């Protein structure tokens, strides 16, 4: 049983990085595809399309920060379950927000191409999703401080 | 590029068509549009051609009989089995055509709907037959445009009729377009919109009036209208490029 909890602990430790990387890759691919398409139909402003399409890359960075905060001198039965719970749940948050952020960025790029004046405001939903990722990051850090080492 | 990403890039590469009747030219040329459509998968290219063929006048003009058009529409609906919204779109368009055909038949003096199954399509055939004498075929309470179309036809206002028909078709496309953003349906609806905008952009109201007057004169008198090539007085029948042609 102890070995199983230790395995879960390791799983939870790496989950934020792995799931965050998947979320970032997926989100950047969605946003990047929209940016590439928009560049075909635009005379300028390529930088801003590519720039916003990279917004979902923050999820993997948050995942790395969470992983370091969860890192313990040893993973055992006392802390394995906590590492698993915090790591996996925060990882799934990064995965989900990364994908969804990519989708709303694709929509924002598409809409702002037709109506350039809404470019700034169209990024608001993506910023809100970023806020949710930051919540998950901050509270993962808070809880990481109370894990028995 | 995987399919969802491919369609995101394709949709965002297409310029906004804007509102109907507001543009004097299409924002993307036929050549460029065809070039962009090369990003479609082979299966989708075929489906798009079928869809445009059945919804554009140029596509159905080659059929001599209404029954052939109905048969072709049923075939296209069947081929679009994986895309229910496009199936509904074809059905709605065919129903609109049926209503306009009924209005024209009535204006031309037909006293009953006759064998409506041989020229009509969709849900409203029974209503049209049962309410033949009603200006809007008993459908005016939820399709008020039919009464307007009846008035335009009675007044011989062909431009008003064309405008009304294109507006209706554009609304149908807007309705289905709102359900799709980055997929094959979104691309197909964009192309159908483009066909309408392109068609309208080719119109010049004054020229159209002059041409109509010349045609009427020629029809009442004898011979070919002066200054008009007989080849261009017919509806386009060349379907080599299926994006071309009317939509009513």
Automatic annotation (TrEMBL), chain A:
GO cellular component, one term: proton-transporting two-sector ATPase complex, proton-transporting domain
Pfam families tied to this protein: ATP-synt_C
SUPFAM superfamilies linked: F1F0 ATP synthase subunit C
Record localization: Membrane
Domain V-ATPase proteolipid subunit C-like: 11-68, 84-143
Primary subcellular site in the record, as a coarse category: membrane
Coiled coil: none
Highest taxon in the source lineage: Bacteria
Transmembrane segments: 49-70, 77-99, 119-144
Keywords associated with the record: Membrane, Transmembrane, Transmembrane helix
Keyword Membrane in record: yes
GO molecular function: proton transmembrane transporter activity
Membrane topology, from the record: Multi-pass membrane protein
Name of the protein: Sodium ATPase proteolipid component
Species of provenance: Roseibium album
Lineage, opening ranks: Bacteria, Pseudomonadati, Pseudomonadota, Alphaproteobacteria, Hyphomicrobiales
TrEMBL record, chain B:
Domain of life the protein comes from: Bacteria
UniProt name for this protein: DUF2764 family protein
Naturally occurring in which organism (per UniProt): Roseibium album
């Amino acid at each position: 049983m102890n070995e199983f909890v230790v395995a879960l602990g390791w799983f939870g430790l790496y989950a934020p990085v792995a799931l965050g990387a998947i979320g970032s890759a997926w989100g950047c691919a969605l946003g990047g595809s929209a940016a590439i398409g928009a560049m075909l139909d635009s005379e300028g402003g390529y930088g801003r399309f590519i720039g916003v399409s990279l917004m979902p890359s923050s999820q993997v960075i948050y995942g790395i920060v969470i992983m370091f905060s969860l890192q313990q001198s040893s993973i055992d039965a006392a802390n394995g379950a906590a590492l698993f719970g915090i790591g996996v749940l925060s990882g799934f948050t990064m995965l989900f927000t990364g994908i969804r952020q990519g989708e709303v960025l694709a929509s924002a790029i598409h809409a702002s191409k037709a109506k350039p004046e809404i470019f700034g405001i169209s990024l608001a939903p993506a910023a809100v999703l970023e806020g949710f990722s930051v919540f998950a990051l901050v509270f993962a850090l808070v809880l990481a401080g109370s894990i028995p080492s | 590029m995987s399919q969802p990403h491919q369609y995101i890039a394709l949709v965002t590469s297409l310029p906004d068509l804007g509102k109907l009747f507001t543009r004097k030219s299409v924002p993307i040329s036929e050549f460029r549009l065809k070039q962009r459509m090369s990003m479609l998968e082979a299966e989708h290219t075929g489906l798009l051609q079928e869809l445009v063929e059945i919804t554009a006048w140029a596509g159905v003009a080659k059929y001599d009989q209404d029954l052939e058009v109905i048969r072709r529409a049923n075939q296209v609906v069947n081929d679009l089995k994986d895309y229910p919204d496009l199936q509904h779109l074809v059905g709605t368009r065919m129903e609109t055509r049926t209503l306009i055909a009924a209005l024209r038949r009535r204006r031309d003096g037909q006293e009953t709907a006759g064998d409506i199954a041989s020229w009509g399509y969709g849900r409203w055939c029974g209503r049209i037959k049962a309410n033949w004498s009603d200006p809007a075929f008993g459908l005016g309470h939820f399709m008020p445009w039919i009464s307007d179309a009846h008035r335009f036809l009675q007044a011989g206002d062909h431009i008003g009729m064309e405008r009304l028909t294109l507006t209706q078709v554009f609304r149908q496309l807007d309705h289905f377009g709102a359900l799709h953003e980055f997929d094959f349906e979104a691309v197909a609806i964009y192309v159908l919109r483009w066909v309408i905008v392109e068609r309208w952009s080719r119109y010049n109201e004054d020229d159209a009036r002059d041409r109509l007057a010349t045609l009427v004169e020629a029809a009442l008198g004898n011979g070919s209208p002066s200054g008009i090539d007989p080849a261009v007085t017919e509806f386009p029948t060349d379907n080599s490029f299926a994006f071309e042609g009317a939509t009513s």
